[in-house]
Every structure is written in structure tokens, then in C-alpha cells.
Amino acid sequence: MIITDDETPSSPDKGSVTTPLLGNASTSATAPPAYTPRQNGPAPIGTAQAPYPNHVFVERRQSAGHRFCRAFLVAFGIWILASALLGSILDNGAIHAHWDYPTVPGVSADHCVTSWPSEEKNNGMFASFPYSVNVSFDIPLPTETLLLLSQGSLSNGNLQVTTSPNIKDSAHVQVVVNYHRKAIRDQAKICLVQREKGEEGVGIFTPRWQSDHADSRTERLLFDVVLTLPRSSSGLYINRLHTDVNNFEQDLESLKDIIKFGHLDLKGTNGRIHAKTLSAEQATLTTTNAVISADYLVSWTTTAHTTNALITGSFKSQESVNLKTTNGPIRAQVEIEAGSSTGTKKVSLQTTNDPIDVGIVLTTQSGSGGDLSVTASTTSGHLTASIQSLPIDAALAFTGTTTNSGAMLKLPSTFDGDFDVRTTNAAATVHRVNPHERDPASKDRVRTIQSSPNSRKTRATGSVFWGPKNTRRGKAVLRTTNGAADIYL
After folding, report:
1. Which of 71, 260, 360, 489 is 20 to 30 A from 253 in CA distance terms?
2. CA 476, CA 462: separation in Å to the nearest integer?
3. Which residues contact 300 (CB under 8 A, 6 or more apart)?
């Protein structure tokens, strides 16, 4: 409303009060306007008056809780429809998405399986997976490196290495894919792979799977892989066998007298590695959260590493044996054959929170001499070490440590050198096994043992030797805390 100078409104009387809804309230004598019924039909444009001009209409709003429930029910309905649609797509066709496949540095994939053979219904050991398909590859031999790879979130299964007289001049790789649904199976890529020149094999690649489906059981794959190598009376030499398979168990049958490996490199995660009898120049066995075991492994150097699991077996080497785990025991028999090579041979055993129980033998072609270094370390676990055989005039350096448990070392009568045994809150004791032993060199020497325990008997030092010239030849150190420490001479 625009106000001009000529239309200046007069000020209301001070004694009266006017309100928009109630009119002039200065007197109660004025009667309210008469009620006029609302006319049917539309009011003329421009002259219409709003009905009930003296009333204010307030819209009743829903409560916040009621609005939330309505929104939740709508969202839930949308989710149900989307899940049904996605389930139909997964069950009846390919998954329309781009998945991230892991890569292996330096490895290229070629000749991947594009059409699957007819599926079979499973029974027996793989009955939990209703269907399977079977594909195979032949890799010509010899080759610089034979590769077997498996990567990705759906990587899971078993790898077996065996031999057959029916295989000639090639390595035969058979892959059985066990599955619930074709759409999930089709996400696997099984290919011939190459690394550098002369390095080839088979790779299994699955995507980095991220699924929100409740029924994840049907979104699993299980790969059963068998590598079959030729078996002949003349034997077979494989320059290098390299495996890198996630979530796979690896089993190698008795191959010692059939196949000689130059480099045997078995790598996995969350799956055990078991070798029956093997022969290699260099053997490296690596996994996590699973056992490493070897019935009899012969190699120039041996390395076995895992975590949270046991390492056990019999290992024979000409240079070194290195066994390492965490939160798992080590139970091993180790033979070091010095042969004609020079230098110190090494045995290293390391774990945490579990015991070490090891027997060690050092041999030489001449039956004398040789240098051997042994370290055995754990925490909160018993340490038991026995040097079962040592050549005459061999130099042994042994260091064994643990905590909060007992420690025991047995040395053969051929050991010459110093010893140092200590503990806390317990006794350190030197035991002489046979006071009347004969000279192992048949020289009519007399064995001397000198020991000096401290006043608290928690430490004993001394030396043992056949003749004065051997007093400093070797050294044995045994240490623990809160447990007895015993050395047997």
C-alpha cells in the first residue's frame, strides 16, 4: 500500500487499541458482523473475499519420528527391488561391472581361457561346490623357469606336484575350477603366462572381490591344480620351479630320486606347504599362518619361513639351513654335510612364544675339522638343542637364548671350547655325561672339564677340551630367564 501526503492517516485515540483479528477493542457495545453463509460456486474475480477473514488456519505437521519411518520404508522397498534385480542378473548372466584384477610385476598373460568346457556335477571331496570345469595346459621342457601363479580375492585351492611316465618333454598343468554359479566362475582368468625369456607357466587371476551379498558362500571358487612332470629312469632336471599362490595348500610328492631342482621357490599365503622327499640346489619355502613340513629335504641351502604356525621336518644341507616362524614351534632334524667346501656352515632357528626342539649333525668327508655356527632363539618357550655328532677338531659356535622357560643344550664328547650358561631365578648347571669316555681320536688324551659357577648358581662358565691346544676351539652360550639352564658335556 502506498501512502501519499494528502492521505496521512489519523493517529488512533490513546484510549483505544486496534488489533487485526479483533477490530476496535475500545468498546464492547459494537456487535459483531452478521454471519453470511458461503455461496456455492466461484466468486467473481477481483471482488472475491476470502471466507472467514478473521480466522488463521495452521497446517498440522507430521512428527519427525513419523517422517523418518516413512522415509525408511521407502528406502527399504527400493533396496528390496534392487537386490532382486541384481540377484537376477548374477544368477542368469554375467556381472556387469569392472573389477580390479591384481597384477604380478613383469608377468604378462596370454592365451586365456575364453570358452569353458561343459560343466560337471561334483561329488566326493569337492561336493560342497556343486559344479566344476576342467582346463589344462602343456608347457614344453626344458624351460628356464616353470611358473605357477594365483592371485586375487577368489584365489583359493590346492596345488599338487607329481610325476607320470605318460608325460613326455612337457609339464602338464590341469586346473579344475569348482564353483556354485557361472557368473562367479566367469570372473576367473586362467592363462598361459610369461615373465622373462624362457620363463613360462600358468596363471590364475581373480578380481579383488568386494561383495555385500548375504550369501557369500555362493561367491566362492576353489581351484584344484595338478602339475605333472615327466618321470623317466634317467631322471629329470628342472632349472627353477617358482610358485606364488594365495590361499593355496601346496603338496609335493616324493621326487628326490626322480627330479632334481636347481631352484625350488614355493611361495604362498594362508596355506600349508608339505614336501615329502625333495632334492634341490636352493630351496625356499615361504607361507603365512600355516605349517611348513618336509619329510626329507636335501639342498645346498634351505630357507623356510612362515608365521603363526609350526615348522617341522628333516633338512640336509651343504651350506645353510634357516628356519623362521612366529608364534609357532620349530621341531627339526638338521644335517650339515660340509663336503669339500670351505667356510663356516650356518644353522639359524628363530621363533617367538613357542618351543624349539632341534637335533643337529655336522659331517665332513674326512671325518675331522669343519666350522659350524648355530643360533637358536625363542621367547617364552622351552629351548632344547642337541648337537648329536661333531667331527674331531671341528669348531662349533653355538648361541641359544629364550625367556621365561627352561633351556637345555647337549654337546658331544668331540666338542672342545668354552661354555657360558646363565639364567635368572633358577639354576645354571653343568652336567658331565660320561666321566670315563675314551679319546675319540684314539690318542690317549684325557678330557678336562673346568667349571666356575657363581655364588648364586645362576651362571656357570668354563671350558672343556681334549688336550691344552683345544681349549679355545669352540664356544657354547646358553641363556634364559626364569627357568633352569642345563648344559650336558
Report:
1. 360
2. 10
3. 280, 281, 282, 317, 318, 319
Q: Which residue's entry shows cell 666338542?
A: 415
Cell of 19: 488489533
| Cα 165 from Cα 159, distance rounded (Å) | 20
Give, in order, the Cα–Cα distances in Å from 316 to each of 64, 253, 286, 401.
76, 18, 18, 24
Q: Which pLDDT value is given to residue 63?
A: 64
Give the DSSP letter of residue 294. Answer: E
pTM score of the predicted model: 0.79
Helix (H) or strand (E) holding 183: helix 182-185
pLDDT at 368: 86
What values do phi and psi take at 359, rounded to 5?
-115, 135
The C-alpha atoms of residue 227 and residue 252 are separated, in whole angstroms, by 10
Cβ atoms of 199 and 147 closer than 8 Å: yes
Distance (Å, whole) CA 203 – CA 108: 9
Q: Which three cell numbers stand for residue 66?
A: 513419523
Max CA pair span of the chain? 146
pLDDT value of position 38: 46
Burial of 180 (0-12, 13-18, 19+ CB in 10 A): middle
Tell me if residue 35 falls in helix, strand or coil.
coil
Per-position DSSP letters for 419-467, written without gaps between them:
EEEE-SSS-EEEE-S-TTPPPTTSS---EEEEEEE-TTSSEEEEEEEES
Residue indicated by cell numbers 621367547: 379
Is the separation of the CB atoms in 297 and 281 below 8 Å?
no
pLDDT in tens, 429-460: 999 998 888 999 888 888 999 998 888 899 99
Contacts of 471 (CB under 8 A, 6+ apart): 416, 417, 418, 463, 465
DSSP code per residue over 232-260: -TT-EEEEEEEEEEETEEEEE-S-TTTEE
Alpha-carbon span 226 to 206, nearest angstrom: 19
pLDDT value, residue 82: 55
Instruction: Give 42-107 as a DSSP string.
Output: PPPTTT---SSTT----PPPPPHHHHHHHHHHHHHHHHHHHHHHHHHHHHHS---S-------TT-
pLDDT, position 62: 56
Phi–psi pair at 37, nearest 5 degrees: -60, 150
Length of the chain: 489
Name residues of the chain where pLDDT drops below 70: 1-69, 72, 74-77, 79-99, 124, 209-215, 339-341
Enter the C-alpha cell of residue 340: 669339500
- Per DSSP, what are the bridge partners of residue 194? 108, 200
Concatenate the DSSP letters of all residues of 361-407 into one string. Answer: EEE-SSSB--EEEEEEE-SSS-EEEEEEE--BT-EEEEEEE-SSS-E
Cα–Cα distance for residue pair 192/213, rounded to 1 Å: 32
